[in-house]
Amino acid sequence: MKIKLLLLFTLICSAIYSQDKNEIREMFWGKSDIYKNETNTPEKWKNESAVVIYKYEYYNYKNSGSSVVYTSAIRKRLKLQDQAAVKEFSEFSFNDKFYSKLGYSHKKGSVFFGVKIIKQNGKEIEVDVEKEAKKLDDEKKIAITNLEIGDILDYYFYSLEPFVATYKTFNAVENTLGDVYPVMNKKISLIAENDFYVNLNSYNGAPKFKEIIGKKKYIKEYVLEAKDIEKNDFPRWFYPFVELPCYKFQIYFARNGGFASYKWADVFLPEEDTYLKQTVSKDDIFKYYKEKYSASGELKPVDVFLKGKKFDSDEDKIRAVYNFARHSFYTQYIEAAIIEDANIFYPFGLFKDEVYLSSQQRFIQYFMLFLKDNKIDYDIVLGTGRENGALEDLLIRENVKVLVRVNTKTPIYLEYFDSFTDAGSFDPSLENTKAYILEIEKNKKITKADFTTLPSTTADDNVTKVVSEVSLNGDFSALNVKRNSSFFGHFKKDEQNEKVKFYDFLDEDYSKYGTERILDRVGSKKKQLQYKKEFDALVNKVKDKNKEAYKKSLSEEFEFEIEDPILKVINTGRFGDKTPLVCEEEFAIKNNLLKKAGSNYIVEIGKILTNQIEIDKKELERKNNVYMPFPRRFENQIVFEIPKGYSVSGIDKLNKNVTNTTGKFTSKAVVKGDKLIIDVVKQYDNYYESNSNWSKIISFLESAYQFSQEKILLKKI
Amino acid sequence: MKFSSKKTLFIFLFSITLFGQKNIEPTLEDISSAKTLRAKYDKDDIAILESTENISFDLNKAKTKVQVKNSIKELLMNINHRADINKYEFYDSESKIESFSLKYRNQKEAYFPVKDEFYKDDDLFYNDAKVMYMTVDFPVQGYTYNYSLEKKYEDVKYFTSLYFNDEYPVIKKTINITVPNWLNLELKEFNFEAGSIVKTAVPNPANSTTTYTYTVSNMPAFTKEENTPGKSYLYPHILLIAKSFKNKETVTPLFNSTADLYKWYKSLIDMMKDDPNVMKEKVKELTANAKTDEEKIKNIYYWVQDNIRYIAFEDGIAGFKPDESNNVFEKRYGDCKGMANLNKQMLKLAGFDARLTWIGTKHIAYDYSTPSVAVDNHMICTLFYKGKKYFIDGTEKYNSLGEYAERIQGKEVMIENGDDFIIEKIPLSTSEANKEAFTVKLKIDGEKLVGTSHKEFVGESRTQFLDIYQSFQNNDKKETLERYLSKSDKNIEVSAIKTSDLKNRDQKLTLDYNVSVSNKVSGFENEIYVDLEYMNEYKLFDLKDRKTDYQFRYKTDYESNVTLEVPKGYKVTKLPENLSIQEKDFSVQITFQQIGNSIVYKKVFNFKNAVIKVSDITKWNNFNKKLNAIYNQQITLVK
Questions:
Q1: For residue range A631-688, what is the model confidence (pLDDT) as tens digits?
Q2: Rounded to the nearest 10 degrees, what angle do helices B336-349 and B280-288 cross at?
Q3: Is the pLDDT at A15 greater than 60, yes or no?
Q4: Interatomic CA distance for residues A207 and A225, integer angstroms
Q5: Are the Cβ atoms of B137 and A343 closer than 8 angstroms?
Q6: Distance of CA B480 to the CA centre of its chain
């Protein structure tokens, strides 16, 4: 009986599957397919590897009662115009069955894949996917048969993902209209029932989504159609979402109206009784953050920290508390996470009453509470990174970055911390942008939203200073280099991530704040000893790996191998936004930068500056505007020790000066005693330059590159 | 209630951890031993202190096949500060893993989760190989685990070899092979250095077996170096050749001789049901306008090269049996066997005598004197034409008919010949056949070197160039060629590029272009310093710390001729000294000459056997230092 029932169930399932499969096939390639006979591609794209004749993206959000069904699909019909394209599309892989991670219950989802080839003589060959696909674990792989240059390949992936939820914020989708190949026709269709709240819009000249009115009023369909889209091209210093036609959307599901509130929703909700939101206003911002942000947390650890401490100003106090909080509520968990990850033991049970600020929201709320408690005036600032486009185009909630502005004499901005953030400095992508400011009444309640402009930094704030002392070794076979580097402002973070490792900054934090280390909390002395040994072993292993990584990074900087370099971090730069990260390095350059010419030597002294940006032919023809991460300056001093018995020639060429409104490159060389001293400055003045200024940027970049190629002659006296 | 059950679970899990932690830390002796080993094997994290491998044989239920049982026990030690490894074992449709476990030092089971997945490789579209593995951490130096594996092979023909080296250095290894008297098994030893491996044979009359025991000490890990010969050249190993077995009074032959191997291969190709009709039209089209037989052959062979994609399937018997030619033709893809079969059938349709041909590439040390499936790993097609044999490898791209890739040159092939077979060797070629030449004529124009360049390629240098060039997207080809010629160096500008037909794989490939090189001429007072070395050939080819032979992709012959016109009114003060080296496997000549008002700078690199042997690596490295010294010299011109 059981077997019979099972058989019946299998047959029913298989019938449903076939029905689905056929319906899906019909949806893409059926009678309504207006592109089924389209095989021609425009003359202007004849040299492209492939041309997309039609690209269709489909999204459907349905509440089927017991579960939510999220459907997403893509169809591409493209002409393969060279061998590279044939190779690119010769194999596909997909997971035909998967478990959804979207809701509470792990329901099984399905992916349907269809593919056909249209030969040059018009013959259509549909691939029997079920027969041809090979299964490898969860993945199915298929090699496309009979594929040749000139063929049209037409394929779709259709994913059906049911899940159970009472409310759910879907991942945001943000894409340019373009593809890696040019697209002749594009359509995006988004269908959502009334329980789904839609944030949706298109930008930068992309066609607008149109609402299609169907028979069923509770189902909304939005369609964007576009034609003749050039392939994506992302040059240096470029933000695609600022210039290229693009679209963004995000969906929120609420099983009933009760969940359509900011208590649950993590998107900007449309007006009451509507389901579509295309722009976000000041009022929307106010409503969302008023609901989400309120002062809360446990101040005891900060109170204990502050006990007995005196500060000259609120400013000093804020900075001290921020650094303490960064350790107490963040970095002290790093060691535990590493211990757990390395399988040494489970350490989190040893924390008692500790506070871990695991999100931006918790961080902001904590500081709201602290500032309220300490009667220090503050606001909340909400901005979006320049890479997302203008504030007026803000749509996706998670693109909002939140800062606390403490209204001390000189306002201090606080952002959610990581190991290297500091009070006073914040994400450079927000600098100099228009933002929202939430005013707080009596340090307690968000009462109003307004506009503000976030402060900028200049090239004086973001500086890399490097002094390189260079000398020849005894037998003139290598150059010995001692470098002292200081990184200020926004230069710090990347360098800290590369050069300051957890074992450096954790020791610094534990020693500064006298916090009990997690390993010291292990009760059993025997266990403690064992875990300490294991942790030390891990640290030693990581140190060895980092030594290799540093060597690789330095070699890449010079573009040739540097052997056995030594790096010392003199100051981690983690305390004080004006405090630089300071490093000292020592290494020898062999087989490079030194050339023999009879009894004389040529030194490629310019290359001590390390590799400079090389503008190629294609970049000269740049059409886009230029988006820099932040204004910045590189100051280099090269101190070259002239060997005894030699004179230096060729220093004239080391003097350069290209200065314009976008930045500069200057270099000045002088001989002082037995030293050749070259002072070099490269500076980018602005966050943004219009394309008309590109040639000005190129002019000082070319000068910098040319400096890097300059040589001096050491002439035997 | 809920809370308390969670708490109970927590206590339970915690107590397991505590229980599991007893007597597993390394002893002081372990730590000391680990430190000593790390000093010796400073690139390895793990050492296998002891490894014992037992191999025994049995007949399957039907008494038709010889099964193999392979059991391995290893004592693994972490010799670095800490180690995190995947301990893994492969198996496939012909083998199965019966047990796979790891124990702590105290012999308690270490319950690392065991994963069982298909083995995925970018070069293989699909294969039936699976991998069972666990991710294991060794928290401190000297930490040990006891590993044990039981694996069974259903058919002795797939149990081909036993190695003494491993992924990690092996301090002591014992292999016991217990051979029953009913099994005629040859143990063929390769790369056994005198005295390094001790072998004993102990008959056991009680169970009618003989146990062969091999012991060895201090074997380094398999090399992680690239461009090395295959491991069958590098490491001692035993090839197991099961020749026949006796069940009661019946003797069943297995691979007693090469003829048996061929017989089995033939049984597989006899299973194919080729339908050449489907490609009849294509063959007709390809040969219709051909004026000669050679042209017909080329049209077919090149069509297969250009239109059949290499997609490798290794699925059970399909790993040995070619796909039908009609399938490969219709699918437009196949593996080496499918492509060989398609070449054969298409050539046959055009009226030629073409046959399937098995071959072990250069990666494999064996020849067909050894009857084993380990002998070959590739299939091609042999064309018999006017008393000559042409070897046709469908997996090669832009290969000219009659030229052979280095990977198959000099290797034995087994050519089908009805019930018989033919053993031949693929002809060897010389490095001259792959010559790449670069000529540039330069003069000084201000602070630039300007002139005209010419490059030419034949043989495998041409094949490689065409293969890479044609793999780029059409719209990137021009830019890619410019980047190649300028070595992506902003100082080198190339223009007015003229090429020979970049689809023609038979003629000499030529590239002519204008060149302008910046920042290589430095004027100081009355002197001009010229850096003629802007191509830097083999500058970075330093084989520092290399422990194994370096194999080139092909026998390489490279010649560069740079001519610089000395500007009027200037004379050359001194030219760098010439440099040369002449060894069995490689030779280099670097010469500077002043001829009239020109400096002729010539470099010839010849790696005539496509290898630098490990014994010559010091010589090469010393030479490379001198080469760099030459490259770091400038030519001084004085007014």
A1: 999 999 999 999 999 999 999 999 999 999 999 999 999 999 999 999 999 999 999 9
A2: 60
A3: no
A4: 7
A5: yes
A6: 27
Tell me the two tokens of residue B179.
């051979």
What tokens does A76 get?
């591409």
| CB A428, CB A455: distance < 8 Å | no
Tell me, what CATH number does A87's domain have?
2.60.40.3140
What is the dihedral sign for C-alpha A553, A554, A559, A561?
negative
Joined together, the tokens standing for residue B330 give 């219709």
Of A136, A147, A649, the CB nearest to B524: A649
Q: What is d(CA A398, CA A388) in angstroms, rounded to the nearest whole number?
A: 11
Ranges of residues in chain B whose predicted pLDDT is under 70: 1-22
**Which range of residues forms the domain containing residue A320?**
300-453
Which residue, A147, A127, A129, A140, is CA-closest to A85?
A147
pLDDT per residue over A73-124, tens digit each? 999 999 999 999 999 999 999 999 999 888 887 789 999 999 999 999 999 9
Query: How does pLDDT run across B554-612, given as a tens digit for each residue?
Result: 999 999 999 999 999 999 988 999 999 999 999 999 999 999 999 999 999 999 999 99
Q: Do A534 and B524 touch (CB under 8 A)?
A: no
Look at residue A280 and tell me if it is in a domain.
no
Residue type, position A117, single letter:
I
Q: Are residues A346 and A226 in the same domain?
A: no
pLDDT (tens digit per residue) in A589-636: 998 999 998 889 999 999 999 999 999 999 999 999 999 999 999 999
Give the contacts of A623 (CB within 8 A, at least 6 positions apart): A691
Residues A425 and A448 in one domain: yes
The residue of B23, B30, B104, B519 whose CB has the most chain A CBs within 10 angstroms, and thus the best one to mutate to test that interface, is: B519
From chain B, the residues in CB contact with A344 under 8 A are: 139
Biggest distance spanned by C-alpha atoms of chain B: 101
Contact assignment for B634 to A143 by CB distance below 8 Å? no
Domains annotated on chain B, with CATH? 13-253 (2.60.40.3140), 258-428 (3.10.620.30), 436-638 (no CATH)
User: A465 exposed, middle or buried (CB, 10 Å; 0-12, 13-18, 19+)?
Assistant: middle
ipTM: 0.90
Q: What is the DSSP letter of A576?
A: -
Distance CA A47, CA A81 (A): 8
Q: Which residues of B touch A597 (CB under 8 A)?
A: 529, 633-636
For residue A691, the 8-state DSSP code is G
Two tokens, residue A437: 């400011």
* Residue A473 counted as domain residue: no
CB B586 within 8 A of CB B579: no
pLDDT at B10: 34
Chain Cα centroid distance, residue A324: 27
Instruction: Provide, for chain A, the percentages of residues in helix, strand and coil under a 3-state DSSP scheme, each rounded to the nearest 5.
Output: 30, 35, 35
- ∠ CA A525-A531-A537, nearest 5°, is 140
Which of A231, A616, A706, A714 to mutate against chain B (most B CBs within 10 Å)? A616
Residues 6 or more apart in contact with residue B209 via CB below 8 angstroms: B178, B179, B180, B181, B203
Mutation pick from B123, B490, B525, B544 vs chain A, by most beta carbons of A within 10 Å, is B490
Give the pLDDT score at A441: 80
Q: What is the Rg, in whole angstroms, of the alpha carbon atoms belonging to chain A?
A: 31
**pLDDT at position B22, please?**
56
Does a structural domain hold residue A385? Answer: yes
Among the partner residues B83, B126, B522, nearest to A650 by beta-carbon distance:
B522
Contacts B632 to A, Cβ<8 Å: 591, 594-596
A381 is written with which tokens? 């600032």
Q: CB-based contacts of A263: which residues, under 8 Å, 6+ apart? A: A291
CB contact under 8 A, B125 and A141: yes
